[in-house]
Amino acid sequence: MGHSVALNFADGKTFFISVNDDELLLDAAVRQGINLPLDCREGVCGTCQGQCETGIYEQDYVDEDALSERDLAERKMLACQTRVMSNAAFYFDHNSNICNAGDTLKLATTVTAVELVSETTAILHLDASTHKEQLQFLPGQYARLQIPGTPDWRSYSFANRPNHSNQLQFLIRLLPDGVMSNYLRERCEVGQILMMEAPLGSFYLREVERPLVFIAGGTGLSAFLGMLDNIAEQPNTPAVQLFYGVNSEADLCEQQRLQSYAERIPNFSYQPIVTKASSTWTGKTGYIQEHLNRDQLAEQAFDM
């Protein structure tokens, strides 16, 4: 049985490989065209060092000169000695091009809907089902989208988790005269083709061991929606606090979806905060930092 493993690099590129139960991580990467730096292949030199960010793994042998006890406690590992026991993600602190790794995936997607939530916020829905395999990305990562009829690309975080039907969602901030913003407001139609490059980015959900505090402003919520979708599918989910700040009530996105997480994630709390609230708004106002419990954050161990 193979495990899906994400290899993340310092240049923000991510490649997914399949690793067999009886296979070393280094061998699996090389087999699939990603030539991780190596020298001794015996767990001594440390050339193939990385860090496990999520997942279960074991190492055959690690020389103390290659990784210290502190390194091991920080889940640093040697690819030439690592055997994965579950789906996992590893980070390597060098650019992917030294591995002769190929480009990230580029494919055509089709617009299925565009919602103009407010003057400053849109939700773009894309269909990538022409790609026959399920798209792989980590919750929180982003894609680059090419604006039709232009050479311009813009980057947006996925607002959902990978799914078999390859239906994708993005929250997009509308600027007064942005290239993508003008396209969404004026020319975007269902059925149009957008080129996409993905997955990209080193901001994604790691191994969850402590309660989480998410702080999202405006369309920055997009990345956290993908993370929450993923957390909701996991057993033994941690407590999650989400602070979501926007300029006006009209900018609030995906309210029903956010409320549904309370039913799917035990100990989930969600606090919308509006900076320029109308007289009818009954929730919290101002800025997110004004509503953080600093004493609680200082006393308890959180991941933010």
UniProtKB/TrEMBL annotation:
PANTHER family: NADH OXIDOREDUCTASE HCR (PTHR47354), PROTEIN RFBI (PTHR47354:SF5). It comes from the Bacteria. The keyword Oxidoreductase applies. It comes from Acinetobacter radioresistens. Keywords: Dioxygenase, Oxidoreductase. Residues 3-96 form the 2Fe-2S ferredoxin-type domain. InterPro entries: 2Fe-2S_ferredoxin-like_sf, 2Fe-2S_ferredoxin-type, 2Fe2S_fd_BS, Beta-grasp_dom_sf, Cbr1-like_FAD-bd_dom, FAD-bd_FR_type, FNR_nucleotide-bd, MRET. It holds the Pfam family FAD_binding_6. The keyword Oxidoreductase applies. This is Anthranilate 1,2-dioxygenase electron transfer component AntC. Signal peptide: none annotated.
